[in-house]
Specification:
about 60 residues, mainly alpha, about 0% strand, SAM-dependent_MTases_sf, S-adenosyl-L-methionine
Length: about 60
């Protein structure tokens, strides 16, 4: 397992004084509530959808 995959899965978590902004970002998604809250956030969801729809060329591959 790569270091990124380990961090994303929660297999390895740095000490709070060693955490970077990336660590804090991914840690925020490890909490259950965010996965319930995000789909209910219509402004955020519509913004993501519109960004993808208007930039389809970036997602081809």
């Amino acid at each position: 397992m790569s270091e990124e995959a380990a961090k994303a899965s929660g297999a390895s978590k740095p000490a709070p004084n060693e955490m970077t902004s990336k660590d804090y970002y991914f840690d925020s998604y490890s909490h259950f509530g965010i996965h319930e809250e995000m789909p209910k956030d219509e402004v955020r969801t519509n913004t993501y959808r519109n960004s993808i729809d208007h930039n389809k060329h970036l997602f081809k591959g």
